[in-house]
Amino acid sequence: MLTLSPLSLYVHLPWCVRKCPYCDFNSHEGRGTLPFDGYVDALLADLDQDLPLVWGRTITSVFFGGGTPSLFPPAAIDRFLQAASARLRFAPSLEITLETNPGTAEHGRFGHYLAAGVNRLSFGVQSFDDGCLQRLGRIHDSAQAEVAIKLAQDAGYGNFNIDLMYALPGQTLAMAEYDIGRALALRPTHLSHYQLTLEPNTVFAAKPPANIPDEDAAWDIQEHCQRLIADAGFDHYEVSAYAKPGAQCAHSRNDWLFGDYLGIGAGAHGKITLPANEGILRRWKLKHPTAYMASATSDARIGGDEWLDASRRPFDFMLNALRLTEGFALSLFEARTGLPRTAIAEELQTAIARGWIVIENDRVLPTEFGQRFGNDVIALFLH
Ligand SMILES: C[S@@+](CC[C@H](N)C(=O)[O-])C[C@H]1O[C@@H](n2cnc3c(N)ncnc32)[C@H](O)[C@@H]1O
Ligand code: SF4
User: Fold this and answer.
1) Which of 66, 92, 104, 220 is the most exposed place for a label (fewest CB within 10 A)?
2) In the structure, which protein residues have their CB atom closer than 6 angstroms to any atom of ligand 1?
3) Amino acid 140: pLDDT
């Protein structure tokens, strides 16, 4: 039987100073003055209409993702959070994260984000090598990244994530290790370490940069960096995520365990369980900011609704749950998908036989081998 999971709120803020050539996120180069106030109005109108999907439920985390949320003035974030907390029940000490591009850090901004309720920042640093940053088309250099993080720390932020990418054009193992050292020296509570992927419909996919490390070199980098990060006291709790004790990202954890989230904003995706009709609804919003804002007060803002039928649920569940090092309990699979564990018994047996997972005390755990070939494991559940 379907049971309600924690519920989080994802808010998409779609503009960036410049589009990075590797990025396939719903991000748009913001030219001229951006309509921050109008966009917050649209977010609230969108939220108002989605409220009946989540009546009475408590929000356990908020995540401002982008795009570049740090382009938004603190007053706009403050107005959104105040209005949202008047409409939804916020859990007492909920995590509120804001993604930050170090190239947008203005003096004085961070104190105001903190006062608005944002208690966690996620910095998109990518690398501390200025050559790598240039080849990635970033708008900041490594010195600016350090200054931004120090400004945030001075303003009172102790809980923050640094995003790094690896297997970058021209990057050696020593350069990747250097990036980890520089990141750790800034004392983050969380690190995300992503392998650069060439996403379809990006500038890099059309014209791949020279000297991207091959898969073996990328694996070597991943293994060495993983050790360095673990030695600094971080738990490697998801394929790309590392956290100090007590600092795992509550918002991402809920996503990875097939929890519910409301998705507000241009191109935002949501997933909501409706136990009364044994339904799981995926809803996404119009992608383009202009079209989204123009239609935010009506159903026209909805890019699509999809009810997840029983045959799709195992794949959607596994897609993220198998990314967690701690795996998942089979009882959680049953509660979140509404399906009995027998629905995936055959696939689990195949995965065990191939050395991809083990089952211990009713928990499904990916092996190291299984984590390396995650896509193959997940494909077993696609019907
Ligand atoms: C929405 S962005 C973070 C905030 C902000 N937009 C920025 O870039 O500074 C999320 C993160 O995804 C990662 N990312 C984006 N495109 C990627 C790609 N093609 N391969 C690997 N990681 C990627 C980057 O580390 C990036 O910081
Ligand atoms: S700043 Fe972030 S969201 Fe914007 S284009 Fe670059 S990687 Fe994508």
Assistant:
1) 92
2) 22-23, 25, 65-66, 68, 99, 101, 124, 126, 163, 165, 194, 196-197, 199
3) 96
